[in-house]
User: Which sequence fits this backbone?
């Protein structure tokens, strides 16, 4: 085959007209030369490809012979296949014809066989019927019925099957035979039923389904079982004097029904199929309705129900007039018991008219049993005739074994939907059930309400107070709720959800009207007596004032005693019914809760919808609890306003009589020694409320106590804001408030949370008076939940006088603003040397060595932003830490550097715009200097990199105290404004929680140095940190100074760096300084007495003692026992009375160490009396650790972080929160020899072996707030 190569494109002459050159400059020769060269190149390419194309054509030509051979073979094979296909088609057609003929022959054979079977079967049926072999005849009929109806009705069958004896067509013959069998079975079954021949009954009953006559069989079977029930008619007509006669009759009837169903249901479902018992049960229930309605009618006539219900409706109760009860006196009767009248409610005395409570109780009980038995039968029918349901087990004692439904071995987790609805028609349409429901509505509810009200009325009439009980109560409380509980349980026993709902409504009305309102009326009567008594007292006082003193004095003592007696009696009656109301509310809630969770409720209401409705109905009755609480609240308020409120303001006046907080050192020491405020308050408070604690219930006293505290703090705050305070006076006020709060908490441990809430403003006022700067105020008040407005803060700070040795100071933020406004020049800044090397040297061992200051950088006000517009945005990176508490943001793509300029934010770079101590709003801020010097300084630090290649990495470390989402959004917006105005690359870290990322802890710095500075080694000599919290004389905060020491950077204040101040004393370390702690001091002072006593001489016995270790946690108590006493055989125990008594009685005797903090004097005194009364061989000593709170916290943090030793038991000691420390130091009472202690050993020095960890680690600064240290930064999982 020849291959054709593609033709080359035609050659074209150059288009001179289209040339881009102008006509004046065209060179024709050059154009022709270029065209000629192009054509030569193309021709050369075509010639070079000719050999390749020829080789390809040869290859294609050699393949032509191969393709031709393949084509020939394919044509030969196609011819052979075609011949085979024609042969197969001829053979297949003949085979299909044979298959069709064979299938027709098979069908004919099968039809002939079926017709033969039909003929023989019909003949067998006829023969067996003549022989009265009904079972064989039935089986043959089944065989005939199973034959295909098309064959039975075919023409062939009509021609072959008929015989001389049975000449009809097969279909007609089968119908005649079935009818004959049915008639025989019906006749035989009825005959067997009349003769009670159970064998023949069962024989013929199971034959009906075999001839497809199930309905007829069930019909006659139902008639038979109905006759069995009808035979009970004679027993139901008998009479008896038993109070439960009619309920017993219905019970026997229902048991018979249940027995019949349980016995016959397996037989019916075996031969007729599952669910076929339902029609039989319908017939049974129809007969049951007839018999049961007769019983109910006889019960109604015999018990005279209609007349009794009419009498109940016509009865008038005395409780309708609550004033009658309010006027009834309640004289206490010695020896009487509030429960003494409970037996009377089992058989109350007859009231006016023919209606007797005892007869009503018997009628209600009988009707309850009748309704309960019906519901039990109903439950049995649902369980038998429907899918079994999951129901709680029944504990009803009255249920008979015959009526109990089958209990599944394991209840399904999810009930079947069909079993959750009352949709079983044979039960729900029962006339007997409807009649019993009508009796519950028309008879039970009126009689039960009458019986309940009668019993409650009787309880009020027999009411007796019990002033010997604690708290005071009266007998009507227990009597009332005894009958309420009895009534409620009886209502549930009726097992009728509609009856339960209706009775809950009625009982709610009865409790509110006949109980709550009656007690309210008696409270109002007692209140009138109190008011009248107060008026008589004022009248007597008026007589003395108007000159009738002689007459007033005559018999004055008797009248005064009589008045006090009347007031005491009226108050006691008042308290009795307040306690009744509180206890009644508790009883109601507990009774309903117990009943809702009890098995009785699940047994009574087996359907889930009814059970839910029953539980919901209790909410109607639960509203009575709200009524009791409402009346109680009103009564307590009246009692408080009448007897306590008028005495609270005079109480404060007596407490603060001659008290001043303008204290100098001597006055402060005297005030601390006398402790007048606390002692007066304790005495007055005890006198005011001591009489109520034992007489009121716990709930009432809690509410009464809380109300008193809430009312007290308002005039207390006004009184404090009318005083003046020196610095020591503010400290004394804070001490007084904390000790009083501690005392109140000990009196009402149940209300410690509400007490702190009530005292929150007082505590913040006292704390605010002791603070020196806005940073302190914002930090402390925010941490404790600020309750003071800005105006209140200013007015409180205005109460301070002679602050700091008589100098009247301006507010710190005003001082800073004034400095910024007045200083317009920047004197030269003096430089100090810093430790050499790339890393910071170890902290100095003395506070005398100041941190090195920063060389001042000359400002350049003309410097301008250098960032591109695309870089001028704040990027918030993922937060750092386990709790994501360290916010991280950048601006302008900051670069790593070996030099770091670190700054604090608030009061270092920016300040609030107005003269207030807080930042409020995203735009309410200004630069620290009030002009452009802060921006110029930071821009110059950045600009040095472009000029001298030594740019600083600028890092800001800020804090926010647990900000809300709104405050955090506001803060981020403010940061955006600040950084965009600054416009230099900056990285900012913000701590939002008290954790290791908060200054002075170095964790935030560690994050920057390790993760965000490009692995560059920081030049600590050239880097620095600027912060305002440096412990200046106007501030107590020093975390910025300590932060710089912890991270090893040079430090300076913003006043020095930005304003050029040269004050050398602008920073000081505050509080206890770990690096100055002297470990060479003796362990204890005085040293004259040995820690372990020795016998006086060899003839005297060993001295046994009990030593109380008194001191805050982490001051060395356990360490002292381990090093000095454990080897001497001293037993160590906690302040547990049982454990101490066991050790005191040990043989041989042992000395004991009570290793606990024991801050309370009352606890120590009780331990001393315990030892004194339990053992004559032991004396008591106390060792006291006078350790400052800061020292104890530092030691605790250090021990918790680094020591593997625990509290003596080998385990890590429990973490103590800031609240734990405040609680201990707030409740600490100094030791006194009057406590009975043999010897006081004071001034124990904390001794901690730091050799294992290093002095530098022990002396590092820790955060004041202990929650910063659940783990040290070196141990924290950062990412």
Assistant:
């Amino acid at each position: 085959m020849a291959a054709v190569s593609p033709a080359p494109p035609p050659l074209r002459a150059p288009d001179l007209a289209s040339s881009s050159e102008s006509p004046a400059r065209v060179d024709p020769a050059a154009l022709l030369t270029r065209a000629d060269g192009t054509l030569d190149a193309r021709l050369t390419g075509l010639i070079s490809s000719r050999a390749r194309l020829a080789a390809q054509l040869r290859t294609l030509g050699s393949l032509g012979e191969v393709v031709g051979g393949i084509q020939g073979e394919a044509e030969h094979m196609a011819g052979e296949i075609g011949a085979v296909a024609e042969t197969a088609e001829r053979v297949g057609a003949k085979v299909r014809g044979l298959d069709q003929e064979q299938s027709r022959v098979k069908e004919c054979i099968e039809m002939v066989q079926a017709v033969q079977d039909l003929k023989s079967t019909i003949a067998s049926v006829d023969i067996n019927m003549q022989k009265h072999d009904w079972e064989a005849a039935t089986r043959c009929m089944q065989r005939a019925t199973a034959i295909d109806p098309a064959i039975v009705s075919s023409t062939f069958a009509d021609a072959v099957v008929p015989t001389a004896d049975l000449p009809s067509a097969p279909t007609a013959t089968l119908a005649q035979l079935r009818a004959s069998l049915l008639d025989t079975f019906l006749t035989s079954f009825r005959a067997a039923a009349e003769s009670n021949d159970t064998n023949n009954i069962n024989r013929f009953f199971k034959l009906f389904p075999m001839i497809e006559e199930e309905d007829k069989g069930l019909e006659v079977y139902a008639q038979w079982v109905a006759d069995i029930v009808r035979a009970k008619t004679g027993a139901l007509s008998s009479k008896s004097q038993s109070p439960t006669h009619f309920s017993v009759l219905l019970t026997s009837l229902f048991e018979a029904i249940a027995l019949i169903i349980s016995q016959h249901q397996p037989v019916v479902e075996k031969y007729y199929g599952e669910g076929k018992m339902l029609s039989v049960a319908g017939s049974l229930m129809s007969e049951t309705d007839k018999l049961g309605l007769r019983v109910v009618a006889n019960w109604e006539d015999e018990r005279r129900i209609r007349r009794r219900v009419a009498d109940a409706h016509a009865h008038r109760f005395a409780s309708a007039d609550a004033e009658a009860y309010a006027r009834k006196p309640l004289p206490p009767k010695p020896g009487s018991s509030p429960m003494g009248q409970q037996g009377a409610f089992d058989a109350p005395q007859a009231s006016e008219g023919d209606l007797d409570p005892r007869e009503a109780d018997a009628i209600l009980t009988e009707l309850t049993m009748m309704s309960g038995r019906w519901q039990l039968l109903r439950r049995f029918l649902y369980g038998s005739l429907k899918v079994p349901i999951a129901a709680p087990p029944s504990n009803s004692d009255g249920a008979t074994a015959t009526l109990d439904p089958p209990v599944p071995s394991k209840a399904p987790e999810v009930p079947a939907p069909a079993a959750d609805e009352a949709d079983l028609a044979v039960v729900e349409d029962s006339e007997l059930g409807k009649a019993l429901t009508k009796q519950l509505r028309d008879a039970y509810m009126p009689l039960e309400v009458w019986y309940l009200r009668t019993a409650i009325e009787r309880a009020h009439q027999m009411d007796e107070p019990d002033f010997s009980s604690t708290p005071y109560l009266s007998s009507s409380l227990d009597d009332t709720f005894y009958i309420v509980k009895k009534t409620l349980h009886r209502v549930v026993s009726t097992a009728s959800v509609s009856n339960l709902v209706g009775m809950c409504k009625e009982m709610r009305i009865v409790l509110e009207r006949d109980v709550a309102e009656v007690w309210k009326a008696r409270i109002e009567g007692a209140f009138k007596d109190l008011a009248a008594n107060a008026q008589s007292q004022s009248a007597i006082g008026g007589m003395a004032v108007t000159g009738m003193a002689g007459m007033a004095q005559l018999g004055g003592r008797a009248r005064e005693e009589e008045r006090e007696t009347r007031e005491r009696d009226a108050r006691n009656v008042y308290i009795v019914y307040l306690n009744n109301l509180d206890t009644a509310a508790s009883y109601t809630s507990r009774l309903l809760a117990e009943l809702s969770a009890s098995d009785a409720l699940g047994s009574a209401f087996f359907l889930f919808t009814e059970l839910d409705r029953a539980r919901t109905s209790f909410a109607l009755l639960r509203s009575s609890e709200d009524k009791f609480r409402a009346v109680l609240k009103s009564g307590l308020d009246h009692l408080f306003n009448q007897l306590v409120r008028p005495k609270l303001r005079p109480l404060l006046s007596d407490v603060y009589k001659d008290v001043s907080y303008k204290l100098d050192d001597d006055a402060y020491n005297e005030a601390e020694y006398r402790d007048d405020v606390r002692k007066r308050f304790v005495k007055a408070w005890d006198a005011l409320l001591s009489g109520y604690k034992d007489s009121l219930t716990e709930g009432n006293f809690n509410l009464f106590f809380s109300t008193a505290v809430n009312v007290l703090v308002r005039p207390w705050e006004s009184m404090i804001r009318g005083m003046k305070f020196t610095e020591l006076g503010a400290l004394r006020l804070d001490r007084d408030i904390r000790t009083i709060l501690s005392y109140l908490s000990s009196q009402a441990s149940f209300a410690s949370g509400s007490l702190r809430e009530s005292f929150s403003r007082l505590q913040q006022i006292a704390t605010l008076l002791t603070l020196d700067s806005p940073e302190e105020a914002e930090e402390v008040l925010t941490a404790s939940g600020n309750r003071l407005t800005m105006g209140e803060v200013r007015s409180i700070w205005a109460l301070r006088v002679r602050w700091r040795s008589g100098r009247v100071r301006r507010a710190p933020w005003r001082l800073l603003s004034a400095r910024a406004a007045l200083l317009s020049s920047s004197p030269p800044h003096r430089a100090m040397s810093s430790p050499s090397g790339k890393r910071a040297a170890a902290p100095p061992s003395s506070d005398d060595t100041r941190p090195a200051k920063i060389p001042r950088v000359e400002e350049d006000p003309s410097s301008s932003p250098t960032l591109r517009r695309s870089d001028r945005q704040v990027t918030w990176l993922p937060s750092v830490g386990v709790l994501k508490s360290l916010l991280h943001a950048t601006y302008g793509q900051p670069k790593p550097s070996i030099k770091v300029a670190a700054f604090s934010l608030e009061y270092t770079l920016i300040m609030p715009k107005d003269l207030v101590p807080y930042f409020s709003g995203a735009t309410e801020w200004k630069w620290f200097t009030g002009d452009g010097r802060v921006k110029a300084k930071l821009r110059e630090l950045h600009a040095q990199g472009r000029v001298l290649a030594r740019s600083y990495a600028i890092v800001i470390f800020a804090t926010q105290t647990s900000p809300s989402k709104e405050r955090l959004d506001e803060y981020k917006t403010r940061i955006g404004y600040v950084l965009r105005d600054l416009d230099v690359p900056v990285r900012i870290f913000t701590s939002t929680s008290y954790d290791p990322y908060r200054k002075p802890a170095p964790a935030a710095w560690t994050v920057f140095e390790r993760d965000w500075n490009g692995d560059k080694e920081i030049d600590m000599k050239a880097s620095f940190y600027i912060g305002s919290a440096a412990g200046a004389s106007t501030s107590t905060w020093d975390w910025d100074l300590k932060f710089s020491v912890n991270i090893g950077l040079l430090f300076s204040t913003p006043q020095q760096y930005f304003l050029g101040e040269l004050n050398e004393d602008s920073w000081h370390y505050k509080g206890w300084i770990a690096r100055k702690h002297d470990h060479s001091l003796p362990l204890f002072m005085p040293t004259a007495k040995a820690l372990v006593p020795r016998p006086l001489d060899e003839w005297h016995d060993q001295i046994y003692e009990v030593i109380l270790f008194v001191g805050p946690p982490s001051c060395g108590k356990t360490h002292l026992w381990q090093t000095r006493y454990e080897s001497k055989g001293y037993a160590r125990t906690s302040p547990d009375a049982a454990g101490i008594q066991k050790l005191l009685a040990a043989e041989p005797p042992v000395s004991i160490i009570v290793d606990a903090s024991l801050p309370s004097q009352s606890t120590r005194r009780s331990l001393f009396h315990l030892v004194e009364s339990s053992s004559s061989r032991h004396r008591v000593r106390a060792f006291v650790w006078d350790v400052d709170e800061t020292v104890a916290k530092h030691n605790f943090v250090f021990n918790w972080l680094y020591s593997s030793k625990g509290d003596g038991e080998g385990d890590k000691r429990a973490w103590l929160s800031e609240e734990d420390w405040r609680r201990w130091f707030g409740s600490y009472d100094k030791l006194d020899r009057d406590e009975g202690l043999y010897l006081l050993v004071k001034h124990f020095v904390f001794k901690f072996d730091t050799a294992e960890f290093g002095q530098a680690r022990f002396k590092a600064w820790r955060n004041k707030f202990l929650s910063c240290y659940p783990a040290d930064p070196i141990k924290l999982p950062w990412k």
User: Anything to note?
Assistant: The mean pLDDT is 75.
